[in-house]
């Protein structure tokens, strides 16, 4: 009867909003939740739920990005020169189905991720660690069942053992990613998901799990279990069989409310405890300082953003004449480092901070958040300097660029005011240097821009990277390696930088890794492959009766970014 009553309360909350009761957390989001299958979780909306109904082997210790602590594991040892990881697993843990968690479930989880490894998932970085390649067996024919099976195994003592082909200093951090949460293998197989057997593994290679049966009917070990989910509402309730401390908040209600004004009204009435805001300028005006609102500012930002200057533009439509004749640019326009340096000096970083970030921004020296190891504040950074910009433009292409001028077309994300403003700042400053310089900027659908940039068809655009795991490699390799995820959008290659990044990947010596990343930062300043956009300073806000959220325990790696904590850590007064 108690369960029926609780469900009735949740359903009432979603059909006709009332002030959120003390045992219920109401969060109004601007977006939907694509999946609840850990095997394909690769967005924050999904991750914010998955990390609360499932659990990983390890997790972050409080607000730390460098210290990890056991979760479903109780301890681990590293041997074989850093290539073997042995985990002792927690006893007495149950899934929401009632099944006991065993080592077989953990083995199944990681083998399933290596087998499927679809383009929609983040399993490429797990595969890099365990198979030596980010590809799946469809794209890399050298991947066999034997390789996958050997990579993760259970021994007779019930310990989980990972065997890596090479040292990976980021491996533990990767295991804290919500997409590596342990799955209930019996429950999954019973739904018709992969059965974990060699005989059927090839049928599941590359399979998109977004709408899997497991996504529709999840069974995790987390403090909360799913009650119901549709296109607009998710209901979850505390799991009575949870192995850890019983959560103070019993019910979780997540609602998709597209209109910002409607979210704001519900929040200010107290009908929602948390909402997606509208950006700093809007939130400071509409929400901050209002009755019943708590505001926490000056939080770490783990996103890195930049102008990409593509050195091999594969889109004739953006090239005009395709020549240095004032009417266009060649496909290799940004190949000349003097052009890139000139553009870097032409951007007004302080104006962007003042006008776009309302003074709450800061310049970085490299495309790595300063809270990660390897960041070097002493690396030089560009500033707005008309004289230096003019000087480098005059050097470019042996003086031909300054003499003839150019016309460049650059796209920005449609609907993104910050991206538009950044483009406008750069355009105005470059064109002011020489009447023969012209930059045409235009808005473009984000989905189209993502595809075209991946194919090298954007000349200059703005893109950002949020970390998958808390290790500098996830930024430095992504941005600066010629084998990195972003290189097809940039087509910049520096042999020495590639060498340093590979060396940093192959050592667990923190001092040496930091030295190597500093070298990359210095070389990147010299070569200017990107224009670094200042990083905004993060903030969050909530109803002031919500307890458990503070600057001291906010962790930017937690997917539920509305609080930077897990649901189980929250309560109400």
Automatic annotation (TrEMBL):
Signal peptide region: 1-18
Pfam families: SBP_bac_5
Taxonomy, superkingdom: Bacteria
Residue span(s) of domain Solute-binding protein family: 67-486
CDD domains registered for this protein in UniProt: PBP2_NikA_DppA_OppA_like_7
Database matches in PANTHER family: ABC TRANSPORTER, PERIPLASMIC OLIGO-PEPTIDE BINDING PROTEIN, PUTATIVE-RELATED, PERIPLASMIC BINDING COMPONENT OF ABC TRANSPORTER
Protein name as it appears in the record: Peptide ABC transporter substrate-binding protein
């Amino acid at each position: 009867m108690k369960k029926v009553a609780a469900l009735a309360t949740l359903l009432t909350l979603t059909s006709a909003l009332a002030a959120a009761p003390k045992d219920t957390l109401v969060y109004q989001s601007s977006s939907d939740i694509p999946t609840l299958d850990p095997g394909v979780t690769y967005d924050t909306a999904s991750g914010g739920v998955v990390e609360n109904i499932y659990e990983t082997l390890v997790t972050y210790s409080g607000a730390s990005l460098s210290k990890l602590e056991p979760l479903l594991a109780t301890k681990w040892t590293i041997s074989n020169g850093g290539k073997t990881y042995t985990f002792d697993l927690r006893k007495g843990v149950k899934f929401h189905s009632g099944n006991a968690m065993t080592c077989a479930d953990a083995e199944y989880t990681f083998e399933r991720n290596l087998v499927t490894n679809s383009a929609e998932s983040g399993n490429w970085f797990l595969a890099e660690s365990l198979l030596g390649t980010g590809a799946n067996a469809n794209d890399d024919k050298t991947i066999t069942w034997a390789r996958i099976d050997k990579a993760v195994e259970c021994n007779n003592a019930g310990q989980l053992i990972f065997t890596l082909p090479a040292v990976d200093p980021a491996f533990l951090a990767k295991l804290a990613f919500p997409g590596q949460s342990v799955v209930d293998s019996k429950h999954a197989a019973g739904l018709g998901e992969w059965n974990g057997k060699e005989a059927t593994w090839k049928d599941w290679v590359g399979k998109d799990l977004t709408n899997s049966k497991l996504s529709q009917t999840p069974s995790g070990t987390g403090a909360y279990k799913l009650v119901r989910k549709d296109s607009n509402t998710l209901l979850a309730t505390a799991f009575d069989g949870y192995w850890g401390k019983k959560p103070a908040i019993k019910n979780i209600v997540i609602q998709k409310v597209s209109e910002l004004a409607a979210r704001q009204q519900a929040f200010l009435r107290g009908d929602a405890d948390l909402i997606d805001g509208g950006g700093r300028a809007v939130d400071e005006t509409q929400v901050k300082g209002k009755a019943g609102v708590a505001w926490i500012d000056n939080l770490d930002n783990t996103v890195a953003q930049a102008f990409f200057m593509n050195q091999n533009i594969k889109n004739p439509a953006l090239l005009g004449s395709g020549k240095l004749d004032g009417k266009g640019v060649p496909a290799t326009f940004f190949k000349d480092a003097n052009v890139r340096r000139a553009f870097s000096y032409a951007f007004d970083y302080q104006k962007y901070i003042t006008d776009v970030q309302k003074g709450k921004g800061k310049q970085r020296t490299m495309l790595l958040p300063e809270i990660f190891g390897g960041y070097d504040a002493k690396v030089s950074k560009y500033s707005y300097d008309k004289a230096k910009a003019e000087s480098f433009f005059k050097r470019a292409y042996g003086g031909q660029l300054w003499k003839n001028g150019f016309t460049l077309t650059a796209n920005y994300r449609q609907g993104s005011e910050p991206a538009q403003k950044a483009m406008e700042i750069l355009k105005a400053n470059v064109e002011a240097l020489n009447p023969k310089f012209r930059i045409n900027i235009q808005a473009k659908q984000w989905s189209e821009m993502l595809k075209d940039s991946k194919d090298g068809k954007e000349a200059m655009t703005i893109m950002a990277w949020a970390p998958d795991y808390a290790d500098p490699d996830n930024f430095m390799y992504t941005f600066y390696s010629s084998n990195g995820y972003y290189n097809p959008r940039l087509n910049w290659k520096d042999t020495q930088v590639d060498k340093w990044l590979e060396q940093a990947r192959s050592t667990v010596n923190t001092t040496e890794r930091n030295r190597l990343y500093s070298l990359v930062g210095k070389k990147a300043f010299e070569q200017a492959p990107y224009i670094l956009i200042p990083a905004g300073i993060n903030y969050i806000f909530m109803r002031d009766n919500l307890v458990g959220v503070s600057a001291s325990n906010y962790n930017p790696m937690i997917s539920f970014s509305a609080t930077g904590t897990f649901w189980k850590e929250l309560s109400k007064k």
